[in-house]
User: What shape does this take?
Amino acid sequence: MPKLFVLMGKSATGKDTIYKELLKDDRLNLKRVVIYTTRPIRDGEKDGVEYFFVTKKKLEELKNQDKIIEIRKYNTVHGIWSYFTVNDGQINLAKSNSLIIGTLESYEQIRNYFGKENVYPLYIEVEDGLRLQRALDREKNQKFPKYSEMCRRFLADEKDFNEEDLSRLKITKRYKNHNLKECINQIVEDVTKGSKV
Assistant: This one.
């Protein structure tokens, strides 16, 4: 039975890089799921690749059509940004395994929507000091760096990925991303096992 793999972790843990590498691995045969957001596009991002960038009006239309699988709202220093998964045909568990990037909150909502037996968590960890340096390096490369938002997000991660919720959701396996290749190899092994359960 195909599964939906939810890749999660605090900001700057390397989720985007790991996501791209897993999708490139033909052995896994993973279908890419792109989530939606109302936040502004960053330098170097492309609509439909990292996210589908939509207006608040489009979000309301999708809600009215009952197409929202899960949604999260963040009160940022630039206003409220929404991130959400849409029932738009990208996920078809009758046909193929899928991979999506999410949070604990989105993982729980997705699991409730598709059923525990169909959703598999992939939780990435990196030491906080290294994460902060990675986040700072990334933000420096933006045309208009948003350092205050970077700091807000970094601090919010402590709440969003707290140990109580990880335990409550029975997420015990941690993938340490100190060596990217080793981390990806561990995930590939578990995805291969998980997709055959």
